[in-house]
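Q: I have 351 residues here and want to know how they pack in 3D. Can you give me a structure?
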Amino acid sequence: MSNSAPGMFVHTLGTGGGPIVSNSRAGTSTVITVDGAAYVIDCGMGSIRNYRSSCAWSDLRAVFLTHHHSDHVYDLGSFLVTGWQVPGESFSRPIQVFGPGRPARVPALDSEHAAHIDARIGARGMAGTVEIVDALLDRVFASDICIRMADEGREEPHNWVVAHDIALPESVPADPIDARHPAMDPFEIYRDELVSITAILVDHRLCYPAFAFRLDSAYGSVVVSGDTAYSENCIRLARGADLLLHEVMDLEAILATFPDGPTRDGIEIHLRESHTSYDEVGKVAREAGVGRLVLHHIVPNTPGTADLRKMQAAAARDFSGPVHVAEDNDRFDVPLAIEPDAARQGAEVMA
């Protein structure tokens, strides 16, 4: 299905948060379409099936990864390989993939914690987005790709998939130990004739770098928070946006699904300091002055474990605008802000 209708639309491909497999929600993923062009943010488990209920492979222009936690990249390889020169189901242009680069070292809370991490991790290291995409095309799917190139006459897949590590501005004093999410201004990472996409660092505890993204078009603006605790940077990025998709968590409800033990204790610290509680998310939307708030990346994500009405009501106490709790395959229309032709002409002048 090609979504060629003019306008700006947000499709929630996956609304579940965390690496736990859910039979009711796909993993977190969103596609924003502008005049039929599709821009995917994160590729959670099962999201590729929902993408094809909203868009065609020929619509896809770019994929953006907020961070490299597994629940945000599980389906990345599927997105990149499935649209590679399949007759009638192929990309119409090279797909751009943007995401975090490799940090200088494994992130830590402080120097003492860094020494403990080094002892625990040993020779293991992290990877940047370019390395991840190269590994998918050249190692994980190497046999499939070689056979299809030999047997079906397909081209080199790197001609169709181009990866980029998001480089922070030199003026941003970011560091994987001392400053994982310093106060900063949003910065542009992508632009074409339809959209401009900006990014900012957010607070996802030790997951560094972790980004929120904003997509601006002639029709309006959409912000996707990524995974983050309450973040002044996210508020700065979202200021005045038409629609904010923000993660939400009920800590007590997710902890109730885990048995007691040391692993549970470690997960509790991570969850508490890495995510935004349902009683804080409305404050983010209010402070940013957004038009609408959509709750997604629902934690817990399995059927009957999250009280969605409670989450919505708590957000509505702090935010006076519309609050929606997203389900998979919901669509949200973004209102026309100014005449598209005039906006495009302005964007072309800026470019």
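Q: Anything worth noting?
A: The first strand starts at residue 8 and ends at 14. Residues 8-104+127-350 form a domain with the Metallo-beta-lactamase; Chain A fold (CATH 3.60.15.10).
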